[in-house]
Amino acid sequence: MAGSEQARLPRTAAKVRRVPATRIGFIGLGIMGSRMAANLRRAGFGVTVYNRTTQTARDWAAEHGGQVAQSPATLAAAVDILFTMVVDGPQVRELLLGPDGAAEGAAPGLLCIDCSTIGQAAAVEIGAELAARGLRLLDAPVTGSLPGARDGTLLIMVGGEAADLEQARPAFDAMGTTVLHVGPLGAGQAIKVINNSVAAANVATVAEALIAGKAAGVDLDSLVAVMDGGAAGSKMLALKQEPMRKHDFTPLFRLAHMIKDVELCLDAATVPFESAQRVLADMRAAERAGHGDDDFAALVAAVEQRTGLRLA
Description:
Blueprint: E1 23-27, H1 33-42, E2 46-50, H2 54-64, E3 67-68, H3 72-76, E4 81-84, H4 89-97, H5 102-105, E5 111-114, H6 120-132, E6 136-139, E7 142-143, H7 145-151, E8 154-159, H8 162-175, E9 176-183, H9 187-216, H10 220-229, H11 235-246, H12 255-268, H13 274-291, H14 300-307
Parallel strand pairs: 1-2, 1-4, 2-3, 4-5, 5-6, 8-9
Antiparallel strand pairs: 7-8
Helix pairs in contact: 1-7, 4-6, 9-11, 9-12, 9-13, 9-14, 12-13, 13-14
């Protein structure tokens, strides 16, 4: 999920207020989805979950008090709003429109909200197919990564009808601190992949700066302090310089997922986006070196290979 990250913020009282008895369905209980669904339960929503690995769904329900559905179709039949948070467009399509998918069990008018990152074209196409079946879709990708999902401080960029956003706003407010209506269906996806491409390029620049500092023989703590306190400061510097220096690639946002997001951005681009092209090459090299399931800070491994210098 996303992809770019924000600093951890404490939960506020607003995050635990009680909400109307809207029935929420949630599909996808990975790094992001499990925590987003937990915040919906914490806010007082009734939540029914589905996950391809059934035991994952059972474990989540046992911990948080929700219900488990046996299929997307049975889930859709029991809820007022249905969230999906999975890896890519083909998964979203299968879960919503495939055999035993949500569309087979949903009552007319069900509001589907996809928080995955699937690209603008896929969101528009899936939305049109759902509309043909009398169902509604918002595309609502998120940024904030694991800390934001855990703490309910995500930024949520929503594409679609304003009235649908207002119906979903109490649920969005349980998961994020900033909810932006960014345009028609698909606009959230377009913005998300551009944002993630900038974040990835920023991390690559930080990696190169750290290695340049090492080559120059300077104290890296001092280099980071100067960059952080000046015009070179960024969230990616704050979040990723230490993991890169320590080679601690515990995943907050997996490299393979960031590769997918940058590819989506470049596939849709109608103008050159050269920094995204460059970072994609480094990320693919790091993936080939075995870092696909690591945090995308592992792209530093490709920079190290190119330069012949290691940070750790």
